[in-house]
Design a protein that fits this description.
Layout lengths: L1 H18 L24 H27 L9 E17 L2 E8 L3 E8 L2 E16 H11 L19 H14 L14 E16 L3 E2 L3 E3 L6 E20 L5 E5 L3 H22 L1
Antiparallel strand pairs: 1-4, 1-8, 2-3, 2-7, 5-8, 6-7, 8-9
Helix pairs in contact: 2-3, 2-4
Length: 282
């Protein structure tokens, strides 16, 4: 009975492994995207992304508030903004490589063997990119009104849903500015033109199945994997802080000015090229 049970699971495992890469990857195979969170209009994946964006905002808001207490970067919470580009990638690959060996027994304990094998692979990638901008003065006003927030409520420790340490990234720059070592001009003037951080998380898992049959004249799949599959999830957060652009009258615009805007764009292009090269290499 045990052998029968084991054999009966082979088609199921093969189906799961061979299906990877033949369709658009789900964000979470266990919770399809059309499932809604009870009591809301959010899909399960949408709720995860909302929580992630909320976590990033919480950390940036706290960081700007703490940096403001140093008084070394007053412009950080007045004329600067924070632009975020969030890239989420789901990548699946599967392969099937059955092989059969035909054995022809000969006289004098000899035999002749002929081996046949075929292989097929499938690869699918899903990439989502969202970019948004916060005005730091609005974040600072909210922090002054409501105080520091507890970001741990949004941290589960799964992938990029965790302590991103954005607080340290921004506060450390404010503490450097306080020393004046980053400038040879009036320390009261902005010592930094752009602050940028790129955070990447990659998780990969996979599996394979290789049932083996050995008969008198035929053996199948005695080496290598009959079917295998891998799935990887990549989360990339690009954070750029810089002066907001202004119009001809000096009013702040909801977009980064130069050189922060160019640096953010260049970082996105570099990341895209690297991702494309990695994908082609697979």
């Amino acid at each position: 009975m045990k052998n029968i049970a084991r054999i009966s699971t082979i088609p199921l495992v093969l189906g799961l492994l061979c299906g990877c890469g033949t369709y658009v990857p789900l964000k979470d195979p266990l919770h399809p995207s059309d499932d809604l969170v009870p009591g809301t209009q959010l899909s399960r994946e949408g709720a995860v992304e909302q929580n992630l964006v909320g976590n990033i905002r919480c950390e940036v808001q706290n960081a700007i508030y703490k940096a403001n207490t140093l008084g070394s970067m007053p412009y950080l919470g007045t004329t600067w903004g924070t632009q975020i580009t969030l890239k989420l990638t789901w990548d699946e690959m599967s392969s099937v490589a059955p092989s059969v060996s035909f054995i022809d027994p000969r006289a004098m304990m000899q035999s002749f063997m002929t081996s046949l094998g075929v292989s097929a692979t499938a690869h699918a990638t899903r990439l989502e990119t969202i970019t948004f901008l916060w005005e730091n003065r609005e974040l600072l006003d909210a922090a002054k009104k409501y105080g520091l927030q507890d970001c741990s409520k949004r941290e589960t420790g799964t992938m990029i849903e965790s302590n991103l340490r954005i607080d340290e990234f921004i506060y450390d720059k404010a503490s450097i500015a306080k020393t004046g070592v980053a400038s040879t001009i009036d320390p009261a003037l902005p010592q930094f033109t752009t602050l940028q951080e790129d955070i990447t998380f990659v998780a990969t898992y996979g599996g394979n199945v290789t049932p083996t049959w050995k008969l008198t004249r035929i053996s199948a799949d005695t080496s290598g994997n009959l079917a295998s599959a891998t799935r990887s999830t990549t989360g990339d957060i690009l954070i750029t802080l810089g002066a907001l652009a202004t119009d001809t009258t000096g009013n702040l615009l909801p977009q980064l000015g130069e050189p922060a805007a160019s640096q953010h764009t260049a970082a996105i292009i570099g990341s895209s090229v690297a991702s494309q090269n990695k994908s082609q290499g697979q």
